[in-house]
Amino acid sequence: MPGLDEKLQLIYDTVLRRNPGEKEFHQAVHEVLDSLRPVVTKHPEYADAAVITRLCEPERQIIFRVPWVDDAGQVQMNRGFRVQFNSALGPFKGGMRFHPSVYLGIIKFLGFEQIFKNSLTGMPIGGAKGGSDFDPKGRSDGEVMRFCQSLMTELYRNIGEYTDVPAGDIGVGGREIGYLFGQYKRMTNRYESGVLTGKGLTWGGSQVRREATGYGTAFFVNEMLKTRGESFDGKTVVVSGSGNVAIYAIEKVQELGGTVIACSDSGGYVVDEKGIDLDLVKEIKTERRGRISEYAEARGGAAEFISGRTVWEVACDVALPSATQNELTADDAVMLVKNGCRAVGEGANMPTTPDGIKVFNDAGVLFAPGKAANAGGVATSALEMQQNASRDSWSFEYTENRLAEIMRNIHDRCAETADEYGAPGNYVAGANIAGFIRVADAMLALGVV
Ligand code: NDP
Ligand code: 2IT
Questions:
Q1: Which of 83, 86, 381, 385 to mutate to test ligand 2, by most ligand atoms within 8 A of the CB atom?
Q2: Assigned domain for 347 exists
Q3: Confidence class of residue 98 from pLDDT cuts 50, 70 and 90?
Q4: Model-level pTM?
Q5: Cβ contacts of residue 204 below 8 Å, gap of 6+?
Q6: Range of the domain at 241
Q7: Does ligand 2 have an atom closer than 6 angstroms to the CB of 136?
Q8: H helix or E strand, kind and range, residue 64
């Protein structure tokens, strides 16, 4: 990775020393510090109050045992995490991820990113992330329920409407939030709706929360395209993943006139040149919890499944990485650029490697970093909290308009901040700097805490 400014390098060295082996966390911190060079020059007050040093250390990290009994009567054991990173702007807020790859370094990188993302939304939410190395694949509803109940039996004492408000992420959707909320309610004897977001519509959830991350990513990319006098109309689009974010990104891109020709899961990708049949993807991935390979089987000769290869080999105008971190490398970026890709919007968190981002920047590709482009999910979570606090519920149309307005504002703030700090068109710099300044100013105001 390129060298940092001297003061920032010292902070980074401390992060490396205090968090050995947590490479995803190191990567996320490095990217932000790299953007902050013009900020520390202009604002020495942040260094004086050790704001950046404090930002890189979570306020609290909770790691706990999660024992549960599987359908065969065997005792299983997982590890649970909640990293409460920063609460200067509001209660800790961020998703829970259930995936076998989860360890402290992944939760910490996600929690760190969440601070800046939540700040960018302009809403009163701090940053956090949690999860477990539990693998929901192949587990029955009963097993998932017992796992969630065991996890919440420990987690409940650390969260709350005014303390920390978890939501979903990879492997955690409406089903899991339901089991978690049920157990929280039972443990506390309180119907505290605002303690979790992503709830079902009949028990305190918000319209559009399910769709929000993917819709928001499409809205953000649409705003970027507008700056070049373009739109999704007539464009071919490739989306990685076929989970919550991917599905609703595809839905909105289709509504905006784009043709999504490929999507994927961890087994490979499908190409459907006439355009992905989204109802079929929803049926396979959300109703049956199946594999994307089944899509090609169901479509007969119309679609092809390519096993074990990257979806980035499919030529497209716009790429929306929406699966997981570091899924789009420099080689993939080179291939995309060579094939004519002109815009990239990160639906996932940190899906593009630093070398990959450099390839896009050097080629003049419009590039929207996850902490800006996928902020619609957490922003709509904050709208869910607003509705819970006022015991109200809003219509789909009203909520979607709020989301669209929030995404436009985030886009404009990133673009203006990039201009102001001498990096026009660089949404990575714009997002990191704009996200940082709002949190840093709150931290200064709150004193040394
Ligand atoms: P889901 O669990 O709904 O879907 C995840 C998708 O990504 C699946 O298609 C999955 O394939 C694929 N995937 C996951 N891990 C890997 C891996 N290690 N290698 C290859 N493919 C993988 O998760 P979401 O859609 O909610 O999350 C996707 C991304 O979006 C994540 O980076 C998440 O942090 C981010 N995000 C999510 C938000 C939300 O509101 N849900 C908000 C903002 C960001 P398979 O089924 O084969 O595992
Ligand atoms: O990465 C993310 O922003 C999320 N998984 C959503 C967090 C939230 O609290 O809605």
A1: 381
A2: yes
A3: very high
A4: 0.98
A5: 181, 193, 384, 388
A6: 212-364
A7: no
A8: strand 60-69
